[in-house]
Task: structure prediction
Amino acid sequence: MTIKRLALFWSMLLVFLTYSVSAEQLKVILTEKGHPPFSFDENSSEKGIYLDILAAISVITGDSFIITYYPAIRKRYVFANGQTDIEPGVNPIWRQKSRDVSIYSVPFGFSTDVVFFRENESFKVEKVSDLAGRKVVTVRGYHYPDYEQAFSDKVITRYDTNHELELVQFLYQANRGADAGFINKHILFFYMKRNNLRFDVGDIIDSLPVMFRFHISKKASLKKFNNALNQLIKDGTVDAIYSKYK
Result:
């Protein structure tokens, strides 16, 4: 073995031993009904983007991730009370009420919402007024900053569904009278492929980076996590995981 290779071997061994000694268990919270393709319900054989990324991080750091499932309405309470350590796929804007107990990983992707239409029924949406007098289908509780005033003033009629699959199914039926829908593009492409549906996909209406949210009590764990996540972003693993669910 050459001196260069020997040095590389000892360097890699040192990294491995460092991670092994500091390996820990971290609790991760997901929505019990799932949020495909990012996560699936606890009885599904499918894992989803978040758990695939965490599995790849585990290989690097030696950490294990204990997955817990809660109703969406209880997730924030459980996190705020320190009953879990990590919430995947979050932007700080969505969790401002609990910013005192939250710290964030480096971004690993984007939450990108698009406007979509039944096939061959699309029209240009570049500004809010392009949807004036129209009926737009969304998911209850989701916030669209540029459109909230128009919804409130009834310039645009907003119809809420309970989740994205219901949204997709609702818009697909012409007799429901909806003109367009707002949806995360990864979720839309997943359901289009999974259910053999065809839609016209329009402009981006909002896009924000997403991160893993750590409880402040796990601040010491974040640097190691970020180092591993940055490695997976740089070597293309994260992109490959996203592509797997298209």
Notes: Helices lie at 3-22, 49-61, 72-80, 148-152, 164-172, 185-194, 222-234, 237-244.
